[in-house]
Every structure is written in structure tokens, then in C-alpha cells.
Write a structure and sequence with these properties.
By secondary structure, this protein is an alpha+beta fold. The chain is about 65% helix and about 5% strand. The chain contains 21 helices and ten strands. The chain has a four-stranded antiparallel sheet. Strands 3-4 form a two-stranded antiparallel ribbon. Strands 7-10 form a two-stranded antiparallel sheet. A hairpin with a 4-residue loop joins strand 3 and strand 4. Helix 3 runs antiparallel to helix 4, helix 5 packs antiparallel against helix 6 and helix 9 packs parallel to helix 12. It starts with a helix and ends with a helix.
């Protein structure tokens, strides 16, 4: 097949004309859309396809003409070989303009659906527009890239934001929180107060959650729900002394969940605040406390608070979340994570830790009283933890996501007891060594027998430094001398901790308490020489007191070792050969000698 010369000129002219026409139409579209934004026309004028001067209306005729010419040119091999680049560029421009036209129509349709509160359809169109916009060229593309594509992307983001804002308003209208009360409207119809409009088709709460999930905006919505739940239910319930069961009432599409005592008390409290404020509004809730999972000690018995919380989360699952597993999983990650501000599991663990008995023998009965309540509460909580997965995968994901477990905490309750005792012991030891160091007493050698009532100020006739004699210790004999009250109190604390270790039924607890007793002496060595260095190194009397303290503690290190090693061996055989304090003797003597030598020199 061979083309005539006049046919080539004719087809070349048509292609050239078509290309310029396509470019002009593209420029016209760009100018039209730009004017819509720069002139700040009303929103309903955006992409109005009903306007006769809108270039989108011409595209249908234009697309057919371009298609015919392109097909004809491709059949003529010689011509296409010569003008193929121009033909391809025209084809690309046609595709871009077609996509722009579709995107404009979809955006118009989506905006109309959002205004009519047709949420599911609006979400579907949003994703279709996203797919179309991905095909459009960007500003770095040589062909077809321009301001018009950027405008379409911005308009898509704006419509998506309007949809999310509408979902938030509708969700707040469906779920209403008050102190001690939750009201849930599972279906909205008729007049919408949040939108100030009347809708024809009902809007379901379950549909709102589905749209939120599709738009991948769960975190911010979940944060709002948990913040309200914390403020209006959990925080007031935590401060209640008397256990109470919530009541639930259902009428057509409305469900109400209420703790009557909390609602009644808060109503009286707000009334009193209003009457005393002289017309000025006052905040009755500290917003900063809402950001922390710690609410202080629980005033209600733990089994009772667990029962109330279990009913709250059961209502949250069935009525508020409408059984949506993805939303439930997102909430479950928040309420069970150790890093979350709304971790109810962490809150319960803190409350349990505060109630752990001071005596180890009482722990088994305390543990038995909580096993069943913890188990029942965790069963309800499992609705929120990977509800669509097997039990084994749930446990595995809990470990991966740093999630806490009430059952695992209860199993290792004895170790928790030891950790608490250790923390309290070290806090007390630090408090003792930081107390006023100039207060002194008369020591006879064994801190267990020495009376703190012998204390007197420096210069007291009952506690003269001259009584210290040579400050010698020979054959476990300690000369009566003046030592600081802090040193004697610290050694009495060590004796107390060692007695607890010897009476323990657990080798792990005994080891932790024994190490805590040793750390008390480490605290003395770490703090006293630095904290009171001025008086110890400059005042001779206080230097002598510190020297006596070091010899006193070194002497008692021997007594402690012989007194408790055999008893500790009954709890843990390893401790019979390793437990002791004698390694402290050269350290205390050395630091005491250094101070005394510096004063003598």
C-alpha cells in the first residue's frame, strides 16, 4: 500500500490541527478550573458539567474524532513511521484529557454524595478517584503535566477531609457521653442536629465505623472514644467506694448505659460548682490527668471494679462498636499496651501492686481471691484483642506488641512482691542516709541491740567522743562510741530485710531481699561521703563520727554474715555458701581510715 502525496499532506495537516486542538482544549480546561479557584466561586460551581461553556462537554465528540484519525494513521505504515511521535503524543494527550474528565465527574458525584450523607457510596467514589489520579501525570512529566492535575488532587483531598469531618460529627451524634452515662443511637434518621439538615435514608452506626475503617483514620476516632470513656466513666468509677451495677435500657434504635450513683453525684457536684462560680465557668476535670493511665489508688475492691469494667467493655463491643472487629482490635491495642495513655490493663496492674500484702504468707490467699475475677475480665477483654484470629496467634501478637496480661502478672505475684519490697527498702535506705548526719547516738557494737533512744547532740555528756577510746575492734569486740543515727537506723533496716529473706518460702524472693540488704550498704558508701563531704572533711568531730560509722558498719557486717547465713541456706542451699557481708569490711575500713588520716595530718 502506497499513499498519494496529497493524502499525506491532508493527513499531516489533520494530525497537526488535531494536536493543536487537543493542546488548546487542555489549556482551556486548565484556565477554567484555575478561574474557579482563584475567583473563589461557590463550591457548587466546581466541575459543573451542566455549563455549556465547560470544555468537558466537548470531549466526547473530540475523543471520537481523535480515535478515528489515530486508527487511520496507524494503518498507513509509511505515514506512521514519519509522524509516529506526533501521533503518540496526541494519543497520550487524549488519554490524559479522558482521565481528567472522568476524575472531574467522579469528584462532582462524590461531593454530592457527601452532602446527602450517603457515606458508603462516597467512600467508594473516593477510592475510584484515587485510582484515576494515580494515572494522571505529575509536574515532572513532559506531556500533559500541569496545574489542572494538581487542582484535581487538591480537590480530592478537600472532599476527603469534608467526608472525615462529617463522619466525626455523625459519630458524636450517635455516641453521646455524660458522667456515668453512655447513650448510643444505632440509627440516625430525619433531622440531624449536627448537619442541620433532614436526611431521607437512615444512617447506621455500623456504616459509619465501616467508612472510618476504609478511610484508614481509626487512630484519631479511637482516641476520641477512649478519652471520653476515661473521662466520663472510668475515672469517676475509680474514685467510688461502693460497688454498683450499671443498668442498660433499650428503646427502638437507642441504647442507654448508666451508673446511676455516678450520674447523680456528678449532677449535684456540677450544680454546686455552677452556683459557687458566680456565673463564671469552671473546669471540673483536670485534662492533664486524662493523658495518664494512673488514677491513683482504687477505692473500690478489685473484684468489684473488675466486674464493672467488664460490663463497660462488653457494652463498648456490642453497642458502640457494633461488633466491628477491626475497630475492636485498634481499641484492644490501646487498652492493653504498656505504652498507651489509656491502658486499662496497666491501670489494673498498678492497682493490684498497691494492694499486694506486706507479709509474704498472705500472698497465696490474696492471689486466690483475684484469679477468677481476672480470668472473667480477660475473657471480655479478648473481644478487643485480635478478635478474628486464633488464641495462639493472639498470645504471640500480645508479646510482639508489648501488651500486658493480667494472668501472667498474677502468676508471678511472688516476684512482684519481692520487687516492691526491694523498691521500698532502697527508698527507705536512701531516705535514711540523706537525713541530718550530725544527729548521733551511743553504739555498743550490735546494731540489733543498740537503742536509738541513746541519741544526743554532739557534746552531750551521754555521748562524748572521748568514750570511743582507741576505736578498736578486737575479736568481735566493739568499743562503745558515738555513731550517727543514720548508720544505726540503716543497719536495723538491713536486719529487718534479712529476717524477711530468711522467713521467705521462695528462693527467688530470698535472693532479691538479700541483694536489697547489700544494696543498702552500697547506698551508704555512694551517698554519705559525697553528700556530707563538707562537714566530714572539714569538721574534726564529724570526721570522727564518720570514722566510727565505718568501723561500726564493718563490725556489723561480720555479725550479719554469721547470724543469717545458716537461715538463708534453709531457703536456698546456694546462699549458705555465698551469702554474706564480709566483703564490705575492707571497703568501709579503708574509707574511714582515709578520712581520719586526713584530719590527723
Amino acid at each position: 500500500f502506497k499513499m498519494k502525496q496529497e493524502d499525506v499532506f491532508e493527513l499531516e495537516e489533520r494530525i497537526s490541527s488535531l494536536r493543536s486542538e487537543l493542546v488548546s482544549y487542555g489549556q482551556e480546561i486548565m484556565q477554567h478550573l484555575t478561574s474557579l479557584y482563584t475567583n473563589k466561586l461557590p463550591a457548587d460551581k466546581h466541575f459543573d458539567l451542566k455549563q455549556s461553556d465547560n470544555p468537558f462537554n466537548v470531549l466526547k465528540i473530540l475523543r471520537q474524532e481523535v480515535t478515528d484519525i489515530l486508527e487511520e494513521s496507524k494503518l498507513k505504515t509509511e505515514f506512521f513511521h514519519k509522524f509516529g511521535k506526533d501521533v503518540e503524543e496526541c494519543s497520550t494527550l487524549l488519554t490524559i484529557l479522558t482521565q481528567v474528565s472522568k476524575a472531574g465527574e467522579k469528584l462532582l458525584e462524590c461531593e454530592s454524595l457527601v452532602s446527602q450523607c450517603k457515606l458508603s457510596e462516597a467512600c467508594r467514589i473516593i477510592f475510584e478517584v484515587d485510582d484515576l489520579l494515580k494515572l494522571l501525570p505529575n509536574s515532572h512529566t513532559e506531556i500533559g503535566g500541569g496545574f489542572v492535575c494538581s487542582i484535581l488532587r487538591k480537590e480530592n483531598k478537600m472532599i476527603k477531609c469534608r467526608l472525615i469531618s462529617k463522619l466525626r460529627r455523625l459519630l458524636h451524634e450517635c455516641i453521646q457521653f455524660e458522667y456515668g452515662r453512655i447513650c448510643v443511637n444505632k440509627q440516625l434518621s430525619g433531622m440531624l442536629r449536627s448537619e442541620d439538615t433532614i436526611i431521607e435514608d437512615p444512617i447506621y452506626l455500623s456504616t459509619i465505623w465501616e467508612c472510618i475503617v476504609q478511610l484508614s483514620r481509626l487512630d484519631e476516632f479511637i482516641d476520641d472514644i477512649l478519652k471520653c470513656l476515661w473521662k466520663f466513666l472510668i475515672q469517676p468509677l475509680w474514685k467510688e467506694k461502693k460497688a454498683q451495677s450499671p443498668t442498660s435500657t433499650t428503646t427502638s434504635n437507642r441504647v442507654e448505659f448508666i451508673f446511676e450513683n455516678i450520674a447523680r453525684e456528678q449532677s449535684v457536684y456540677i450544680t454546686q460548682e455552677s452556683s459557687s462560680s458566680d456565673g463564671q465557668s469552671k473546669t471540673t476535670v483536670d485534662e492533664k490527668k486524662l493523658q495518664s493511665s494512673s488514677l491513683g489508688p482504687c477505692r473500690m475492691p478489685l473484684p468489684s471494679i473488675l466486674e464493672c469494667l467488664g460490663q463497660i467493655f462488653s457494652f463498648l463491643w456490642s453497642e458502640i462498636l457494633c461488633g466491628n472487629e477491626k475497630v475492636a482490635n485498634a481499641i484492644g491495642a490501646q487498652i492493653s499496651s504498656s505504652n498507651s495513655s489509656y491502658s486499662i490493663v496497666n491501670l489494673l496492674i498498678e492497682a493490684t501492686s498497691a494492694l499486694i500484702p506486706k507479709i509474704e504468707a498472705d500472698i497465696p490467699s490474696f492471689k486466690a481471691s483475684l484469679e477468677q475475677p481476672f480470668k472473667d475480665f480477660e475473657e471480655k477483654l479478648q473481644l478487643f484483642l485480635f478478635a478474628d484470629e486464633s488464641q495462639s496467634s493472639k498470645l504471640q501478637k500480645q508479646q510482639q506488641n508489648n501488651q500486658l496480661s493480667l494472668s501472667s502478672y498474677l502468676v508471678d505475684l511472688v516476684a512482684r512482691y519481692a520487687e516492691i519490697r526491694r523498691r521500698e527498702t532502697l527508698e527507705r535506705a536512701r531516705e535514711l542516709v540523706l537525713s541530718d548526719y550530725h544527729n548521733t547516738m551511743v553504739a555498743g557494737g550490735d546494731a540489733l541491740d543498740d537503742e536509738l533512744s541513746s541519741a544526743g547532740d554532739i557534746g552531750d555528756s551521754k555521748a562524748l567522743l572521748d568514750q570511743s577510746g582507741t576505736f578498736a575492734m578486737q575479736k568481735l569486740k566493739f568499743e562503745t562510741c558515738q555513731v550517727s543515727l543514720a548508720a544505726c537506723r540503716l543497719l536495723k533496716l538491713v536486719h529487718e530485710v534479712m529476717k524477711q529473706a530468711c522467713s521467705s518460702a521462695s528462693a527467688k524472693v530470698a535472693n532479691i531481699l538479700f541483694q536489697s540488704a547489700r544494696d543498702c550498704l552500697e547506698i551508704f558508701l555512694a551517698i554519705v561521703p559525697l553528700r556530707f563531704s563538707d562537714v566530714i572533711n572539714t569538721v574534726p568531730r564529724m570526721g570522727a563520727v564518720y570514722y566510727n560509722d565505718c568501723l561500726y558498719i564493718a563490725h556489723n557486717s561480720t555479725l550479719l554474715t554469721h547470724r543469717y547465713r545458716h537461715e538463708l541456706g534453709k531457703v536456698d542451699e546456694v546462699l549458705q555458701h555465698t551469702a554474706g557481708f564480709v566483703d564490705f569490711i575492707p571497703r568501709f575500713r579503708s574509707t574511714g581510715d582515709q578520712v581520719m588520716t586526713s584530719h590527723l595530718e
